[in-house]
Design brief:
single chain; alpha/beta; Rossmann fold; five-stranded parallel beta sheet; 9 helices; 45% helix; globular; binds adenosine monophosphate
């Protein structure tokens, strides 16, 4: 199964993606997470990318495309993968199509998580992320049991560099000018499924499960029953 999780920052792609991984047993590739890891490791590429993402700007296509190409060639992607945060421009979508056809693969679907701007700003500004396992919390709607610590691994919760008001504004602008046009690209080839992501994560996930039954979700389809 090859699936794209699409939508603005804060729509819940990461949260829903982790649940889809459990149901379908294929890896989730988050380009944002790759960039954060590369920056933490202080690689040259990571620091170059950070100069864009820390202010909310998109990282240039050539950098992103190279990383995705390398990542999806790894053995764990042989049975499929879920992309979270890629493609984010029409040019990335076109290049991804070429990559897939060169490797004899095809895209099964694109889930577009739609949410209103006030809700996105509320989610992003209150979001806290575990520095170790990546679990996410919200200071009001999903607080950790112990203030500042992850419920799952006990590590420190941090606020992402780009979850500040100025970067959030830039990210939403980048989304509407450069990323939203990608929706039409996938509407035109009949692969887009829209989901109302303003609702609670469990409600959204139930709808995602229904959608997954219609795409090629591989061996663990039984996990989708329910
Ligand atoms: P995310 O974790 O998906 O919110 O991504 C964090 C940041 O990484 C984004 O705001 C972008 O600056 C950068 N980024 C992630 N994926 C891409 C992409 N496909 N194209 C360009 N920039 C990206």
């Amino acid at each position: 199964m090859i699936l794209i999780l699409f939508g603005p920052p804060g729509a819940g792609k990461g949260t829903q993606g982790s649940r889809i991984v459990e149901a379908c047993g294929v890896p989730k590739i988050s380009t944002g997470e790759i960039f954060r890891d590369l920056a933490a490791a202080k690689t040259e590429l990571g620091l170059t990318a950070k100069s864009y993402w820390s202010t909310g700007k998109l990282v240039p296509d050539e950098i992103v495309v190279g990383l995705v190409k390398e990542r999806i060639a790894k053995a764990d992607c042989a049975k499929g993968f879920i992309l979270d945060g890629f493609p984010r421009t029409v040019s990335q979508a076109e290049t991804f199509d070429i990559m897939l056809s060169q490797s004899g693969n095809k895209l099964d679907g694109v889930i577009d998580f739609e949410a209103n701007v006030d809700e996105l700003v509320r989610r992003l500004s209150g979001r806290r992320t575990c520095d170790n396992c990546g679990a996410t919390f919200h200071i009001i709607t999903l607080p950790p049991k112990v203030d500042g610590l992850c419920d799952y691994c006990g590590s420190e919760l941090i606020q992402r560099n780009d979850d500040n008001p100025e970067s959030i504004r830039t990210r939403l602008k980048e989304y509407s000018s450069k990323t939203e046009p990608v929706i039409n690209y996938y509407v035109s080839n009949g692969l887009l499924h829209r989901v109302d992501a303003d609702r609670l994560p469990d409600v959204v996930f139930n709808e995602v499960l229904e959608l997954l039954k219609t795409v090629n979700c591989g061996a663990s389809k039984e996990a989708l029953v329910g």
